[in-house]
Specification:
Order of helices and strands: HHHHHHHHHHHHHHHEE
Oligomer: single chain
Strand content: under 5%
Structural class: mainly alpha
Radius of gyration: 21 Å
Distance between the termini: 56 Å
Largest sheet: 2 strands, antiparallel
Length: 426
Amino acid sequence: MPAGVNAGDTAWMLAATALVLMMTPALGLFYAGLVRSKNTLNTFMMCVGAIAVAAVVWALLGYSLAFDGEAALIGGLDHVALNGVGFEPREGGTIPALVFMAFQGTFCIITVALVSGAVVERMRFGAWMVFAALWSILVYAVLAHWAFGGGWLAEKGLLDFAGGVPVEMGSGFAALAAALVVGQRKDYGRQALLPHNAVYVLLGAGLLWFGWFGFNGGSGLSAGNSSVLAFTNTMLTPAAALLTWFALDLIRGRKVTAIGAATAIIVGCVLITPAGGFISPGWALVLGFLGALPCYAVIVWRPRTRVDETLDVLAAHGIAGFTGILFLGLVAQIGWNGVADGLFYGDAGQFWSQALAAAVTPAYAFIATFILLKLVGAVMPLRASEHDEAVGMDVVYHGEEAYASGEGAILVRPDDERELLVADPN
């Protein structure tokens, strides 16, 4: 074993990396349950596609741009194609650089997959794959460098334990831009576009929560105190958010909904992501109780607009990440994190560092995504035709159905290659 590598830390980080990678198929299950049955497979496949393109692009270029050097805006090219990334630890680390690269790569993968929730049921699969590859470099790697890789936000003193900047706010505000560029589904505002399988949604949320123990608990990059604190807080904040959501559902509709419960779990996990290893368990509970409120409000408000941000990535990730970053600036305690205090404990400067990140990250993620999609759209169509959207993305792009209703459920007329009839297109 190379000098400086700790076997216990490495073992935990190998497990944490596997947990985070599992989160992307779990997200696919969560998202698939929220769409109509005719788009189940395509929605899941957008997450699977993110694994394919983001993992390869991360290894070839993204990791180097995020973690090579300490330039203010973007990393260097010394680690292109994993050059120099081997069994030895990074400076100051206790795990092999290869494990660190893989762990961080799983973050890139799931962040790309998260953005798909804004454009499911109408974006072309090929255009999505091209966009996913470019976005992982031009948006995710840049934000990761700013927050984690020695970039300018890190230099300004930003505290972000597990990805409030590049993962949560990055995906949430990118999703808003994507929804605006790609446009509404053809039936949006005219038909009830309801989740087709709440069990998928709950199961996906449960698996995501399970994986989040690796996501947050592994972000201490060791089996030490910060990972223990983050692990514990990852249990507490989602539980508190879940209780709050139950109460809000009862007040609003006199029923506790399954879709609401699944959403609350995700919101709670996102809220604690930036703060996990920096705040006390008591404040983690408070964050869950209070942080659920603005996220719930945005989810209730968004359908009243004409913005078809389909699966509420903005509310569940963008707004929750924004809230977690700011809350951390208020209640961080050096007695728990060994790094810094927040405003409530005497350090106003820490709060302003957090506020700066909360201002610039949404702006960059939104603008860069908007421009990138416009450029991709100038080269190839971004969205399916109305005919293909009516038939369903599963049959059109994958030639399969999640729920074949009998032999010969898919019929292709030989005199018209575009005419596809499915047994149940709803």
